[in-house]
Amino acid sequence: MTTLSIALTLASPLALAAPQSLELWRHETGNIAEIEVSRAAVERFNRSQDRWRVEMSMIPEGAYTETVTSAAVAGDLPCLLYIDQPVAPNFAWAGFLQPLDGLVDQAVLDGLIATARGTYDGRIYSAGQYEVALSLLSRRSVLEEHGIRIATLDAPWSTGEFVEALETLKASGDFLYPLDLQAGWSGEWYSYAFGPWLIGFGGDQIDRDTYLEAEGVLNGEAALAWGELFQALFADGLVDRNPSDNRGFVQGRVAINYGFLEPSAYPVEWEDDLVVMPVPDFGHGSVIGGGSWHTGITAACTTPEGAAEFLEFLLQPEEIAAMSEGAGMIPASEAGAALTEHYREGGQWRFFYDYSEAHAQLRPETPAYPIISSVFARAGRDIRDGGDVQAALDEAVDAIERNIADNRGYGMGN
Question: How open is the CA angle 62-67-72, to the nearest 5 degrees?
Answer without folding.
Answer: 150
